[in-house]
UniProtKB/TrEMBL annotation:
It comes from Hymenoscyphus albidus. This is Condensation domain-containing protein. The lineage of its organism: Eukaryota, Fungi, Dikarya, Ascomycota, Pezizomycotina. PANTHER family: CHROMOSOME 7, WHOLE GENOME SHOTGUN SEQUENCE-RELATED (PTHR42034), CONDENSATION DOMAIN-CONTAINING PROTEIN (PTHR42034:SF1). InterPro entries: CAT-like_dom_sf (IPR023213).
Length: 331
C-alpha cells in the first residue's frame, strides 16, 4: 500500500506506505524522488508506464549475497537468535492500560541540540547512546517487575550502506534493507558505562560474518518463533517491550510548493501505526534540531503517560550529562 495526500490549506504532504515493503531510508528516497519530479514540472502525459515486475528489489539476503553455510555459520546464527530472544523477551516494560494510534514528540532547539552534541563528543559517545542509556534507566525506574537485571531494545539497523551496487542506491528504495539487533545494558552499570557499552556495540554491530550468516539467522528466527513455548507465569503481567530507533513507515513533511517551483521543506515528522502495546522511540535531527518521538497505541497508553515517558528520558539524559536544555512543547 502507498498513499500520498496533500492539503493545500496547511501546505502539508502526508505519505503513507506499508512498512513490510519500505524501510525508513526508502521512504525518504521515495519522497526525494517525488519532490524532484514536482519541482521539474514533468509532462505526465508523455511518461511511458511499463511493467516493472522484473525490477522488484531482491530480499536483503539476496542483495547481500548471504550464502554462509556449514557448522560454524549455523552455530553463529543459532547463538545470535538465542541471544536476541533471551534479552528481547526478558527486557523491561512499562505499565499499560487495556484505538487510536498517535506519536508524541519533544522537539529541541538548535542551541540545545548543539549543546547535547558537544557534551557527547567530550565523552566520546554518540547522541544515540546517550538517549539509549537514558531510555534504559527510565524503563528500569518504571518497570512493574522490579529487579530485572538487564534492559534490551530491539533495534532496526540500516544495512543499505553495506550492500553492493546497485542495492544501496535510490533505485532500490522499495525494500526493507534493515536487520534487527538487540544490544543490552546492565541495571547496575552507571550511565557512563551504559553509553560506552552501547557506543561500542554500534561501532561493531555489522560484520561480513553477520551478512554471510543472515539467511541462516532469518531461518533460525522463524523456527524459534514457531517452536513450542514454556508456560507463562500468570502472576507476572506481560510487559510492553520497548523498541527504539526502528524504521518508520509513515512520513510527513510541511512544504510550500507548486509545480515547477523550487520546493522548500520547513518541517517533517515520521512514525508508524502501532497495533500492539509496544512503544517505538525515534530520534532524528532536521535543520539542526533534535527530535525525540514515541509512537504507541492509545488502547494501551494514553497521551499523559507517553509525555511523561519522553520527559523522563530527557531528564535522565540531561542530569547525567550535566545539561539544562530547552525543549519545545510536546506535540
Amino acid at each position: 500500500m502507498l498513499f500520498a495526500c496533500y492539503t493545500s490549506a496547511s501546505s502539508e504532504l502526508m505519505f503513507l506506505v506499508s512498512h513490510w515493503r519500505v524501510d525508513a531510508l526508502g521512504v525518504l528516497m521515495l519522497l526525494d524522488r517525488l519532490f524532484a519530479l514536482l519541482s521539474s514540472s514533468p509532462d505526465v502525459q508523455s511518461i511511458v508506464w511499463r511493467n516493472d515486475v522484473a525490477q522488484i528489489s531482491p530480499s536483503l539476503e539476496d542483495a547481500g549475497a548471504s550464502v554462509g553455510t556449514g557448522p560454524e555459520m549455523e552455530k553463529y546464527a543459532q547463538d545470535f537468535i538465542a541471544h536476541h530472544h533471551q534479552v528481547a523477551l526478558n527486557t523491561g516494560g512499562l505499565p499499560y492500560r487495556g484505538d487510536e494510534k498517535t506519536p508524541r514528540t519533544i522537539p529541541h532547539s538548535t542551541a540545545s541540540t548543539t549543546a547535547l552534541i558537544d557534551a557527547c563528543k567530550k565523552r566520546h559517545i554518540s547522541v544515540t547512546a546517550a538517549v539509549h542509556a537514558a531510555l534504559a534507566n527510565t524503563v528500569f525506574s518504571l518497570d512493574p517487575v522490579k529487579g530485572r537485571p538487564q534492559y534490551a531494545a530491539v533495534m532496526s539497523v540500516n544495512i543499505r550502506p553495506y550492500l553492493p551496487a546497485p542495492y544501496h542506491t535510490k533505485s532500490h528504495a522499495c525494500q526493507t534493507y534493515v536487520a534487527g539487533m538487540t544490544p543490552a545494558v546492565d541495571r547496575e552499570s552507571t550511565f557512563a558505562e551504559k553509553t560506552q557499552t552501547l557506543t561500542e556495540f554500534y561501532r561493531n554491530a555489522y560484520s561480513n560474518k553477520f551478512m554471510q550468516a543472515l539467511r541462516l539467522i532469518s531461518g533460525t528466527h522463524v523456527k524459534t518463533l514457531f517452536a513450542p513455548r514454556l508456560a507463562v507465569d500468570p502472576e507476572v503481567p506481560p510487559q510492553a517491550t520497548q523498541q527504539r530507533f526502528s524504521q518508520q513507515s509513515g512520513y510527513h513533511r510541511k512544504a510550500t510548493c507548486s509545480t515547477g517551483v523550487k520546493i522548500k521543506i520547513t518541517n517533517f515528522k515520521f512514525g508508524v501505526t502501532m497495533m500492539t502495546r509496544q512503544l517505538l522511540l525515534y530520534l532524528w535531527t532536521f535543520k539542526g534540531q533534535l527530535n525525540l518521538s514515541v509512537n504507541y497505541n492509545d488502547a494501551y497508553h494514553d497521551t499523559a503517560s507517553a509525555d511523561d515517558f519522553l520527559a523522563r528520558i530527557c531528564q535522565v539524559r540531561e542530569q547525567e550529562l550535566g545539561l539544562e536544555l530547552v525543549h519545545g512543547h510536546q506535540c
